[in-house]
Amino acid sequence: MDTVDYFPIEVEEVSWQSAGEQLTAIRHKVFVEEQGVPVAEEVDDLDPTAMHWIAFGPGNVAMATARMLPDGQVGRMAVLKPYRQRGVGSSIMRNIIRYAIREGKEQLVLSAQLHAIPFYEGFGFISDGKEYLDAGIPHRTMVLNLHRFMDNAPKPLLREISDEERQRVGIEGVDEFRDQAVMLVERAQREIRIFTFKLEPGIYANNQFCDAIYSFATSHPLARVRILVKDLAQVIHQTHQLHELCLRLPSRIQIRKLETKEDCLHTEFMLVDRTGILYKQEPERFVGYVVPHAPLEAVELVEEFDNLWEQSELDPDLRRLHI
């Protein structure tokens, strides 16, 4: 299967005993040299008891770190300056949250510098209490209740997957793509990802599809739709029903413009719950396939999509429309 070139990020769980030198080097650069935190306050006696993470990039270069104490306190999140705005911090935070859920933690707590609050809010953290100074820098406490991911998450249907659902079915034409897109959205329980050139109105701006998206997005507090668009001109300059839904439900449905200097080998696809795939194989014609249950292939596409998503952001023209 073709792959998308993207900035590679590998996150590893490490201990202080095995990786203390790398952890210290990154934190010293960020906290001591950049932010002026006293050395005596940067390293403490809690490090040996904490779980640590290091993000590695091209050439196995250590780019960032974070730690979590046994009581669920997250801290020492540090990303070296050359690697910021590349999705590195987000990759570490996703790993921390997955680890905490796996370990049965009830909540995560952290002390956020004020400029970083929107970053943590994106993962569901909520500010708790007043602003205070830590090492001379304004902070606020933030809390993430992990029960929202465990107890309230939509439960998968406990049924046997049929052979038909595992079959890749060829489709052709805008109408067939629209019908199959609606079918997949109606099956969705938690996540929808759309990677598209221009949000073709015949597929994504009709009542049937938008009604299905709206029903999904309002079905559960954790339901999310993320749309990555290569060319936003049509979305910005014309009325587009799906974009209007984004304005109504900005925390549930988000659009970003694809930002990458590398050629993208995929043409267009939609992913549902890491299992369902709608895939357009030719750039100039609506020819492709749909498969409702293909988790191995879907997970690969999800990873590629998420890395591209974190390298992209809300386009300034879309931001003005939001305002």
From TrEMBL:
It holds the Pfam family Acetyltransf_10. Residues 9-147 form the N-acetyltransferase domain. One of its GO terms (molecular function) is acyltransferase activity, transferring groups other than amino-acyl groups. Its EC number is 2.3.1.-. The keyword tRNA processing does not apply. InterPro entries: Acyl_CoA_acyltransferase, DUF7931, GNAT_dom. Keywords: Acyltransferase, Transferase. This is GNAT family N-acetyltransferase. It comes from Porticoccus litoralis.
